[in-house]
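Researcher: Next entry in the queue.
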Amino acid sequence: MAPVKSSIGFLLIISGCLMLGLIQNGEAQVMCPQFCVSASYMMCKATGHEHVAPACNCCLVQGQGCTIYLSDGSKMRCD
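Model: Structure for this entry, 79 residues:
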């Protein structure tokens, strides 16, 4: 009976190590700040020259080729 218990314990330890390895190798999550800029509109590469509702900040549209046009006339490029 002792070899069976030690085998089960060994399998549990190996399974736990594998699960932890899978969790640690997952994709990194991006944390976006929770503030909104005073924006009038936004344009992205996918929308061409169409004005769309602006995102709160660049973090939310990162990598989509968007530009947020602020209400003071300036703009934020979100590359």
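Model: Residues 42 and 52 are 5 Å apart (CA to CA).
Researcher: Noted, moving on.
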